[in-house]
Amino acid sequence: MPASITHDVDLRTSFARDASGLELLPEAVARPTAVDEVRELLAWAACERVPVTSAGGQSSTTGASVTDRGLVLSLRGMDRVLDVDHTARTVRVEAGAMLGPLKRQLAADGLLLAPDPTSEDDCTVGGAIACNASGARSLRFGATRAHVRGLTVLTIGGETLDIRRPQLEKNTVGYAPLFDLVDWFTGSEGTLGVIVAAELSLLPLPSHVTGLAFPFAREADALDFVIAARERGSPAPRCLEFMDANALGLARTAASDPTWAAGASALVYAELDGDEPPALDEWLALAEEHAAVVDDIRAYEGEAALRDARRLRHAIPATMNERGARRRPFGGRKVSTDWAVPYRKLGEALAHARAEVDARGLEQPVTYGHAGNGHPHQNFIAQDADDLARITDAVGATLQHVLRLGGTVAAEHGIGKLKARWLPLQASGTQLALMRAIKRELDPHNLLAPGNIL
Q1: At how many degrees (to 10) do helices 219-230 and 346-359 cross?
Q2: What is the pLDDT of residues 175-198, one digit of tens each?
Q3: What pLDDT band is residue 276 in, cutting at 50, 70 and 90?
Q4: What region does 165 belong to: left with phi over 0, alpha with psi -120 to 50, or beta?
Q5: Please, are residues 64 and 72 in contact by the beta-carbon 8 Å criterion?
Q6: Percent of the chain with pLDDT over 70
Q7: What pTM value is reported for the model?
Q8: By percentage, how much of the chain surpasses pLDDT 90?
Q9: Cα–Cα dist 56/144, whole Å
Q10: Residues 311-359: pLDDT tens digits?
Q11: Among 118, 20, 33, 122, which residue's Cα sits nearest to residue 74?
């Protein structure tokens, strides 16, 4: 047995939870600090038929990083920045590096690493790649997948795969999904191989960034404003975030200002960037046109102010995580959705979702998130097991309507264990069969991340 494996119960317990609310005690934990150790571990696991679930910061909301089968492979000890190429604008980094500190290190050199999940200070690079994480600024920059140039992956048998994006402009060899293996592993949630290092593309850091918070008395006006802001043309905002009345209440508490926008029932937060300061008059006029509460509009300029804006947004899931954790002893937990629809259909989707909640006599969730992409988060607190069952039923009914609107059951956090039940709603039998075929080819004994996705 490799020396890095431990069965210490206290250590195992420390890896038994992630942000999903699930609690699964692993049989063992391994904490390697080098690629050779990971290779040895995987070769041993393949020989002994021991399941392996990779973990980074364990900020998963889908239970992807916890298991009660086999061992948790923690990559936090592999956190080195291997190379920064300022000319090519790339960074090569080990999978265990924390995303937020890496972004700040690169920003000090005038470089922007674009992926920005809300949990960036709690998640690793490998974890962000494994679930194809996105965030507020994905409206402009796209999800993590768009910024992955290459990966170093170890298979369950310990084979090393160094894969890169194809550089060809033309290729007619075989089926298109087979051209780019980087896409096989990005978003695979640890089910196909263990990502140990990545090369990521970088952008120039913008000279000016301004955040604007627009309160609205009516939610419908806020959602109409989102559509108008997205379609207004250049320069486009890099994020359009939404808060309903419940979420805005949590943000007010975090701001220690309960009177802020007291007459508002919704809020839209936009960020503008560029080489020159934005034309704020145009944005204020657009907000006024859509009945924003103009006297309570707030601007955030400068790094400190923008951090404050992020803190207010982050306070919403952080508060809900705390509330959910308090219900675990009673069979409850936080339930979080990340469905998405075409952005013009968001209002219709939210109305239907709330009707499903009302029909089951449940408390309305806290709703917030990436309205510019048609992608809200709905956070419920299940008080007990009965509440959890009713919430799950409401979410299932919501997702069926979301799919009828041309949406997706999971837009940001992956499938993991909690959402595996919903995958067959969206993926056809042929698609599921192809996914299983790829899984069998790379992991024939189903040892990697059992229970995730399939």
Answers
A1: 150
A2: 888 889 999 999 999 999 999 999
A3: confident
A4: beta
A5: no
A6: 100
A7: 0.94
A8: 86
A9: 16
A10: 888 899 999 999 999 999 999 999 999 999 999 999 999 999 999 999 9
A11: 33
Tokens 């990559």 -> residue: 75
Contact present, 371 and 344 (Cβ < 8 Å)? no
Domains within the chain, CATH numbers bracketed: 1-205+417-454 (3.30.465.10), 208-318 (3.30.70.2190)
Residue with the two structure tokens 């690169």: 106
Token representation of residue 370: 């990436």
Q: How do beta strands 239-243 and 298-301 pair? A: unpaired
Quick one: tokens of 111?
């470089």
Tell me: pLDDT of 79 over 90.
Answer: yes
Amino acid identity at 212: L
Name residues whose C-beta falls within 8 Å of residue 217's C-beta, 6 or more positions apart in sequence: 263, 264, 265, 291, 293
Provide the β-strand partners of residue 240. 270
The structure tokens listed for 158 are: 């310990």
